[in-house]
Amino acid sequence: MGNLPTLANRHSAMSTLEDLAERVERLLMRHDELKRTNQLLEQQLSTVAAERDNLRSRLSAARHRIDALIERLPPSDERLSSHEPEHHKGHTSGGGA
Predict the structure, then answer these.
(1) In angstroms, rounded to a whole number, what is the distance separating the alpha carbons of residues 15 and 8?
(2) pLDDT digit string (tens) for 62-79?
(3) Does position 9 have pLDDT exceeding 70, yes or no?
(4) 37-66 in b/e burial notation, b at 16+ Cβ within 10 A?
């Protein structure tokens, strides 16, 4: 009769199995939560990446527009002479005419 499990041993084994089953259930629920969280994070990442790409494109277009405006500017010596005050342009000092 030494090979037969005692009532206490059976109860302990059942308790261990029940604990294990509860733990597996909690792990499965946690796994589902993490999967949902991961899906949300992937969506957010996709949205942010699309926004980043849009901003990069807009920045590039703005740079091209600025470059085009810079190309239309007169050479620097013409810009400097156009900013001189009127009384210095083409006038000599003295009062004759």
Answers:
(1) 10
(2) 999 999 999 999 988 776
(3) yes
(4) eeeeeeeeeeeeeeeeeeeeeeeeeeeeee
Q: Which amino acid is at 6?
A: T
Structure token pair of residue 35: 């999967």
Residue the block writes with tokens 């308790």: 15
CA-wise closest residue to 21 among 32, 53, 13: 13
DSSP H/E element including 62 = helix 7-72
The full set of domain ranges for the chain reads 19-70
Confidence class of residue 52 from pLDDT cuts 50, 70 and 90?
very high
Q: Measured between alpha carbons, how far is residue 79 from residues 41, 76, 86 in Å?
A: 53, 5, 14
Residues in the chain: 97
